[in-house]
Amino acid sequence: MANLIIDIGNTALKAAWADGITLGKTFRYQGEKISGFISSLTGKNRPDVMVVSTVRELSRNLEETLRTECGTLVVMDSSHHEVALRHGLPQCLSPDRVASVIAARHLFRGHGCTVFDFGTTFTVDFIGADGAYQGGNISLGCRTRFKALNRYSRDLPLLDTPETIEMAGTDVVSSINSGIISGIIFEIEGYLRQYPDNMVVFTGGDAIYFAKRMKNSIFVVCNLVLMGLALTAEEYVR
Q: Is the pLDDT of residue 201 over 80?
């Protein structure tokens, strides 16, 4: 597989080799030595195109290092908006959301889409049947809500995401679980009512967790961002 795609998020780095839109093995890294980790992937195979989507701006030294390890380097961060602009997307859109929209347009061509990404943040993006980007929203992700409730209250505990919830809590733990999980579900249902004819796509770390709790028909595409980055790499190959 000729291209290497990398998504550096808020909590982890995900990478995969790609041949067109076909993804190979996915790698996950949670550490500070990003350059060394990427070099471990390129040490045996030099990618034709390397696409790096990152929520952190790449340092000039790291960018120069990566350029020596591939044929073509494509950077998508707060200073590099070429990919977003080429696809008619606003510069304010984070690189991972740009990639998600690119992938959703490809997978559901001719259909309106509502794309939910369940990560550190909870984002929703709306795409028209003609592929036009119609805007989107950003909120706190599921685990971020649990952490915030614990941090900004005096005596509420930090809880893990529950397997089951009650409609209404009967103690502190069940009240927190129900309040956060039901609250996110109510948000989702509200968005779905706004765009009832759209295809609904869930991605991100908690996508399956919430898809199981929805009555609507949901497409879960866990590697939607990587798929969008793979499509971007193919554009540069062509």
A: yes
H or E segment and range at residue 37 = helix 34-42
State in Å, rounded, how far the first CA of the chain is from the last one: 15
Taking CA atoms, 127 is separated from 78, 198, 234, in Å, by 22, 8, 22
Q: Same structural domain for residues 125 and 220?
A: yes
Is the pTM value of this prediction over 0.90?
yes
pLDDT at 1 over 80: no
Q: Indicate whether 178 and 125 sit together in one domain.
A: yes
Q: Are 221 and 199 in contact (CB under 8 A)?
A: no
> Are 116 and 210 found together in one domain?
yes
Residues 172/157, Cβ–Cβ less than 8 Å: yes
Q: Assess contact for 50 and 69: CB atoms under 8 A.
A: yes
Do 119 and 79 lie in one domain? The reply is no
Range of the domain at 98: 3-102+229-237
Q: How many other CB atoms sit within 10 Å of the CB of residue 94?
A: 21
In the predicted model, what is the mean pLDDT of residues 93-102?
A: 96
Residues tagged active-site = 96
Task: Name the one residue in this structure whose structure tokens are 């259909």.
Answer: 111
Same domain (yes/no): 77, 158? no
Each residue's pLDDT tens digit, 35-76? 899 999 998 889 999 999 998 888 888 899 999 999 999 999
CATH number for the domain spanning 30: value is: 3.30.420.40
